Amino acid sequence: MRTKPYIQDNSALGYSVGITLDRFIKSKQDDFPFASGELSQLLRDIALATKIVNREINRAGLSNIGGAFGQTNVQGEEQQKLDVVANIRFTRALTKGGEVCAVVSEEDDEVIDLQNNSGKYVVAIDPLDGSSNIDVNISIGTVFSIYRRVTPLGSPIQPEDVMQPGNKQVAAGYVLYGSSTMLVYTTGHGVNGFTYENSLGEFFLSHPDIKAPETGNVYSINEGLYYQMAEGLRNFVCDCKKKNFSARYIGSLVADFHRNLLKGGIYIYPGTDNNPQGKLRLLYEANALAFIAEQAGAKATNGIDRILDMVPTSLHQRTPLIIGSRDLVQEAESFLNGKKEAFTEKFQ
């Protein structure tokens, strides 16, 4: 005979789900006295497109949309089929949403004028970062920045609406398509992460108020570029090895950044002999991640200047990027700028 009340332990069978992305966005509308719901709707439009792209990625191996598309983008990079699919999905969602007047995409040479002169916002986006990894089932991502237009509503968009420094962003985020799909974003009031629950079709708050560790023991850099880097960065890499740091480089910017944001570490894509300005784009990659990093207590620089203070001079402008835990970024800057002595023992 059972003498105590029987209470079933469901901890191994189920889990609790919390606040949805939609409800979270609505709860934060008061953070923007200048807005009347448009920014919230814009974030929901991006989330919807994310769900669609997530579906396309998950079935890529079955629907023959993996692999190369056969064309190159403005960067001179071979487009993947999923690059094109993701670009269409996000552009369509932003067009139908009605809050955006223009889109800057990695996949398009020029600004996409949505012919919506009443739209208050400009979106800069890399629809699918690291898409060449899709065929080998490695994590990929989406990166986006949101700016308020600066010209009067009702007038055609102008270059100054688009060519804004990162410190003018009103929101930025990324989506990681990995073992789970996560959307992480900031509106300048901290960083929050949401995990997609496929069976419910909803993003749920899973990582509230993300804070980056001040330091870490992971460095993420393509060491194949070692002899093309500045001597200071080579010395920093040597220093990491001397300290027995772990080298972690996936080749998908979002995936490398996300890991270091949560666990501590540094990501570097340097200027090199062949590409002095690096390969990452300022408007729709570096700015977005720098905004998120700073809101989480981390740091982002090109080695000399704060990323968010850089004023873009061209649509697809590139920049070196050093981003991650504050102490590690400052250490890398010290080596790069010659404030730390060079090692006599070089990495071979």
Distance between the termini: 72 Å
> Rough shape?
globular
Can you count the beta strands?
Answer: 17
Please provide the ordered H/E string of secondary-structure elements: HHHEEHEEEEHEEEEEHEHEEHEEEH
Poorly predicted sequence stretches spanning 5 or more consecutive residues: 1-15, 343-348
Question: Beta-sheet strand percentage?
Answer: 15-25%
From the alpha carbons, calculate the radius of gyration and give it in angstroms: 21 Å
Helix content: 25-40%
Give the helix/strand class.
alpha+beta
Mean pLDDT: 88
The figure for the number of domains is 2
CATH topology of the largest domain: Fructose-1,6-Bisphosphatase, Chain A, domain 1
Question: What CATH architecture label of the largest domain applies?
Answer: 2-Layer Sandwich
Strand order of the largest sheet: 4-3-5-6-7-8-9-10
CATH class group of the largest domain: Alpha Beta
Q: Please summarize the sheet with the most strands.
A: 8 strands, mixed
Number of helical stretches of at least 4 residues: 9
What is the CATH homology-level superfamily of the largest domain? Fructose-1,6-Bisphosphatase, subunit A, domain 1
